[in-house]
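User: I'll paste a sequence; please echo it back and then give the predicted structure.

Assistant: Echoing your sequence first, then the prediction.
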Amino acid sequence: MNYWSMAIFFMSGTGNSFRAATWMTEIANKKDISSQLHQISRFYKKSDFGGESNDLLGMVFPTHGFTAPWHVIRYTLRLPHGRGNMLL
């Protein structure tokens, strides 16, 4: 499948997840995929992801206790329903 754009949402405490998200964005740009990088914040009330059919969404975060941090889970649950769109 060809993607036109990509949005990567990241949460980083030490900077490692930010660096990985930056690498993903750089690779996408080299492949002519328009990409955006967004920081997940505890203060987001709802997701601002548009979710077009040719969009790719990535979530990058450190694990805490073998799972995602709670505010990342809460943010992910507020994403619009994808109806078949992929989530990395």
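Residues 1-53 form one domain. The longest strand covers residues 5-10.
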